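Lab notebook, entry 73. We have the chain sequence and a SMILES string for zinc ion, and the next step in the workflow is to get a structural model of the bound complex before anyone spends time on docking refinements. Request logged below.

Task: model protein plus zinc ion, output structure tokens.
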Amino acid sequence: MVNKASNAGHIPSRTCVICKNKDAKPNLLRFVIKNDIIVFDYKQKMQGRGYYCCVTSNCINKLEKWLKKRKRK
Ligand SMILES: [Zn+2]
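Result returned:
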């Protein structure tokens, strides 16, 4: 018997850096920061610290501001 609830546990979840919503990893867009530039990691194979963002224009549009905030530290 297949239990849907137990299957869901196998999908890793990640948190969007903008709205802090948690979603299944495949539903989020992974990116890394190289030389202070956001590089979307479409193949999910880039080295380095990965960040995740919702695939919505609302969150993607705010990424630039988020990046500038990081640099001010
Ligand atoms: Zn988001």
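Notes for the group: The chain has a mean pLDDT of 89. Worth checking against the assay data. The first helix runs from residue 4 to 8.
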